[in-house]
Fold:
Amino acid sequence: MTQCFVDQYSKFYVPELDEYVDGRKTLGENIADNGGLREALTALKRHLHKSSPEPKLPGFEHFSAEQLFFLSYGNLWCGISTKESLQSDLGDEHSPQQFRAKGALQNSEDFARAWHCPLGSPMNPKKRCIIF
Structure:
């Protein structure tokens, strides 16, 4: 099961450096990111089941609670990277920020359902990596 993550993240290309993520080096953190996303969404669903709907911010009324959750998750990893910071990221056990978001969201069936991603599209692949 871990090989699925190694293969998935090793396909993430960093064009600024003409290099790929080392899926083996980042494996532990990638698994943690994926599991953390799943657990956080489960906590949100439990919270929503136990309480009344929360008021939505103006301009966001048309988004579901799950869609807002995923927007917030993506925003967590949003940032500007320099070549130097990307080089540092590739030497680290963490994947670069954009791939931490992309990888975990690609593996989330809930994400694909919330955003109506067609099966087989980049954000709703036929094969997902899941460990626990």
Observations:
- The longest helix spans residues 27-50.
- Residues 96 and 127 are 22 Å apart (CA to CA).
- Strands lie at 13-14, 19-20.
